[in-house]
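Workshop exercise sheet. Pairs work together: one partner reads the sequence aloud, the other fills in the structure field after running the prediction. Swap roles for the next sheet.
Pair: D.N. / O.F.
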Amino acid sequence: MNDFQNDRLDRAAFNRATLQVARDLLGKFIVRSYRGRNISGMITEVEAYKGPKDAASHACGGRRTARVEPLYADGGTVYVYFIYGIHWMLNFSTAGKDIPEGVLIRGILSDPDGERKLLAGPGRVTKYLRIDRKLDGADVTDSKQIWLEDRGIRIPARSIKRGPRIGVDFAGPYWAARPWRFWIDGLTALRDHPPPKLFPGTRA
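Structure field:
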């Protein structure tokens, strides 16, 4: 039996200021139900995108196409897109309906065989979690295929770093310099948590 409560994140967790949501997602768990088993990973790195005013956002200038429609949906909607003909990218809408802001998941801590493994890079995240376009538009607040959980991990402020987003130089120097990427520095905050507490069901 687990000695902690897994609380699923609800709508209110996403319908808030995007930068706050991004920071607060650090330490939360993405759970993916795939072919009869649950795959999970703790979020370790994210980037925030601020909608029409953000030149690095897919919704820059109020762009609204079928591709970006999930960003305009209520907070907690999955936005998945394909880049470079290779990688799927996993995002969650934030801020509220008709406000096309969101958070990209750039890194997770996984535990596939009882040994922690840091997966850095959004392509590695989606490959591990078996994410593809089939999940585009899913609602993580009620989906049976993907959801987020609070497992009681609290990341100290001193362990959270922030800096410019990656790969957005096309947006110009101002937007490329926005410190809207957040990550857990060295994962030092996890030293007191043995793997079973983070990943119930795995071996010690």
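Discussion prompt: The chain has six helices and ten strands. What would you look at next?
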